[in-house]
Structures are given as structure tokens and as C-alpha cells.
Amino acid sequence: MSKLISIHPTEDFKARSRLVLNDPAQRKNFRGAMDFLQAKRRAQFADQDELQGLRELGAQIRRYSLANLPRLLEQLEENLTKNGVQVHWAQTPVEANDIALGIARRVGARHIIKGKSMVSEEIGFNHAMTDAGIEAFESDMGEYIVQLAGEAPSHIIMPAIHKTKQEIAQLFADQVPGVSYTDDVDALIQIGRRVLRRKFADADIGLSGVNFCVAETGTLCLVENEGNGRMCTTVPKVHIAITGIEKVLEKLEHVPALLSLLTRSATGQPITTYVNMISGPRQPDQKDGPREVHLILLDNGRTQAYADEELRSTLQCIRCGACMNHCPVYARIGGHAYGTTYPGPIGAIISPHLLGLDATYPLAFASTLCGACAEVCPVKIPITDILVRLRNEAQARPDGDDATLRGSGAGRNMAVSAVWSVWSQVYSKLGLYKMASWFMSRGRALSPSGQGAWTSSRTPLVPAARRLRDLLKDQQM
């Protein structure tokens, strides 16, 4: 049995954030990277009318797909099966890993080459395969770098964005046999290419993610820039694709609009270098391609989000990373501080469904609610509204009507709740409010100098010496 991937404890979120905030070099690197990505996106969407029209179209496609999700998943399975693709359903990460492990053992696989897949990160695929004695090797350059470093991706599009070329150069010199230190970017790419070429040839199984599944044709759509995705899905004799159940679309004609939004929002490209459409294994008259193709459809809490009308829009996400690139919090603390597979604003709203609100509720409070994430989201997810909802869920009574999620009420503090209860009573009754404000203004000297998180970076709050009603009374006399 595979073991479930573990995450960093949320109680350490602030400590991890402070480590980055106290590292000027890393903060500078992240700020520069985010500014660069924002500029590339702006250049691709110079026509605001086109952008808003495309966003509305993308949002409508995703809403329509989700509204018809059960039917589309059945249609997808039917057509994939007709095409020769074997479809598997997994409710949990453990089930997904066990399905993949079962396929690997059946074909006697010892080496798996991986294309980029955030869902495989979500389920802890590499760890599960390693525990079973099977090598799982990352072929995406960014993923390869963080795997060498023993780290997790810090961004869903650019996994190694937190590393400088000097750090990568030293990593290669330390970890890749026969390699000397060089910080020349072209040389580093060539080093990675030489290592990976041999891995493609030796792999028994290729694993990939999926950007979109098309129900009407039984097609798996995968976009990439390096060609490693195409190698992973064609060179090994078995191809395993893994994705969340929300990635299904009804028609092939729905793909172009979403691709245009995805690539331009993610990396500032009109289109990626490679767009792969996979509809089945190698046919008898074909010379290359895998002999088997498998698709693992993962739930892992997605049905919880789907069941709630407000939270369902979380599943519209096309994993472009634009919300991260524009988030003032992510730009300062980076992805590793979050401690979850999906960092930034999208991680704050999707992780509670994957891991439980009790494990992730501090992330909903790691936001200024400035709305930049919702403003740039290509499929118009109301991220700030969902963050507020999750904050309320975290503070809800566990047995109350407003506690609807797994782990609701985890952030509830009895002392804080009692304070807010008294506050609501005072501010809802005029007599109590007058009396309380009189005592506060006269006793302002007793205001504590330490006021929790507020005074960690701000001066203490002290009531005014005269109340507003007193000042108005003086003017009327």
C-alpha cells in the first residue's frame, strides 16, 4: 500500500514565510521573476477588449463543462475506451498511486520517465514509486532541477523559479557525475539534455499530466515547451496520464480558446512549442507510440468543491499560474512557504478540498484581498470571494450550519470568539455602546502595548481622548 504524501504543518507557515522575508536575495529574485512574467503577459494582451472577451468565453466554457461534469466524464470514459485507452478512477492519492504501481508491476517496470504533472506532485507519486523500488525520473528541466535538490516545485509553471543560475550550476556540479561547475545557461541546458536523453530510452513507462480531456473524441491534450512531454508519451512502451476529474471539456472546439488563455497567461507565449493530442495507443500500422495508454482520473476532494455551488468555481482553474505571478504575498514569500503542492491564491482555495481545511486554513488568511488574482484569472474565478468564504468556514462552529467543509472550524478560538461576541453585543445596543466608549476614552492610558499580530509591525491602537459624540456636542454648544 502506498503512503499518503505529507505536507508541512500549517503552524509553521509564518515561520517559513519569515525565513524568506529575511532573505533579501531571494526576495529580490522573486520580485524580478514576477515583474518579468507580468510584463510578458501584458504584452500578449495589449487589446483589453479582446482579453475581456476571451476571459468571458473561457469562463463560460469551464462553467458549462463543470455544470455537465458527470455526463462528460461518462462520455470521456466511453470514447477513450473505444480508442483503446484504459481508464482508471481514483478517489484518493493512495488509490491513484496503487493503480500506477499495479500497472508498473504488471509490465515489470523498473524505470519511469515523467513529464510535468502537478497532480503527480499532489499524490506524492515519486515517493510512492521509490518506496516500491521503482525509479521515477523527472524530465521537465525545472522539475529535474528540484528533484536533484530534493525539493518540491515552488511554482506550478516554473518549478525552479526560486533558484539562481549559480545555484543550479553548483547543484549540477555536485549531483551530476563528470560535470564541472559552469553557470553558462546554454551549457547547463546541454548537461540536462544529455542526462535526460538516456533516461527516455531506458524508461519502461512514461507518465504525463493532462491539460484538457475532450469527451466527444476521447482525446488527451497536453501542452509543453521542451519536447519532453512528447518523448514521455511516445518512447516508452506504456504511457500513464494522470489528471483531476475537473479537466474534462465537451468538445474539441472548446480547446483553442482555453489554450490561448493558458499559454499567454502562463508564460506570455502566443502558443507553446508543442501541443500534443493523444487519442489512443499505437495502432498495428503505426511505427511508434506506446503499446498501452492509461488515464487515471483523480478525485481527492474535488467532489467536495463540486458539491458546493459557490466553491465549484475553484475547479474552473486551468493551472496557468497568473494569480501567483500577480499576488503581492506570493511575490514576497515564494511557493515553498505555503507547504502545499499548489501555492499562491489558487493553492489557498483548492488545498482545503485536497487536504482538509484544518490542515490549510492559515493560507486563506495569507492574502491582502487586493483582488489582483481575480482580476488576471483567465477563467474569472472569484478568488477573493472564495478566500472570504474559507475564512468564515475556518472560524465557524464545527456543528453549525455554516460549517460545510472537511475541517471547518479548525481556526476557531474560544477566547477570540468570546471577544467578538461581546463586541457584537456592545455595538448592537446603543446604551452599551455609549457606556463602553466612555470607559475606553477615559481609560486610554490602560491600553496594552502588545496587541497580538497587530503590533508585530504596527503601533498599538489607543482610543481617542474624546469621543466623536463629545466633539460634536462641543461644536453645538
Primary descriptors:
Rossmann fold; 49% helix; globular; disordered N terminus
* Known CATH architecture of the domain at 71-303: 3-Layer(aba) Sandwich
Q: Radius of gyration, rounded?
A: 26 Å
What ranges have pLDDT less than 50 throughout 5 or more consecutive residues? 1-6
Structural class: alpha/beta
Dominant shape: globular
What is the number of strand segments? 10
CATH fold description of the domain at 71-303: Rossmann fold
| CATH superfamily (homologous) name of the domain at 71-303 | NagB/RpiA/CoA transferase-like
Considering DSSP H and I runs of 4 or more, what fraction of the residues is helical? Answer: 40-55%
What would the average pLDDT be, to the nearest integer?
93
Strand order of the largest sheet: 1-10-7-4-2-3
> In this structure, how is the largest beta sheet organized?
6 strands, parallel
Taking the alpha carbons of the first and last residues, their distance comes to 81 Å
Assigned CATH class of the domain at 71-303: Alpha Beta
Strand content: 5-15%
Number of helices: 22
SSE topology sketch:
Layout: H1 13-21, H2 24-44, H3 48-67, H4 69-82, E1 85-90, H5 93-106, E2 111-114, H6 118-122, H7 125-131, E3 135-138, H8 141-149, H9 165-175, H10 185-202, E4 205-208, E5 212-214, E6 219-224, H11 228-234, E7 238-244, E8 248-249, H12 255-266, E9 274-278, E10 292-298, H13 302-307, H14 322-325, H15 330-333, H16 344-355, H17 357-364, H18 372-376, H19 383-395, H20 414-428, H21 430-442, H22 468-476
Parallel strand pairs: 1-10, 2-3, 2-4, 4-7, 5-8, 7-10
Antiparallel strand pairs: 5-6, 6-9
Helix pairs in contact: 16-17, 16-19, 17-19, 20-21
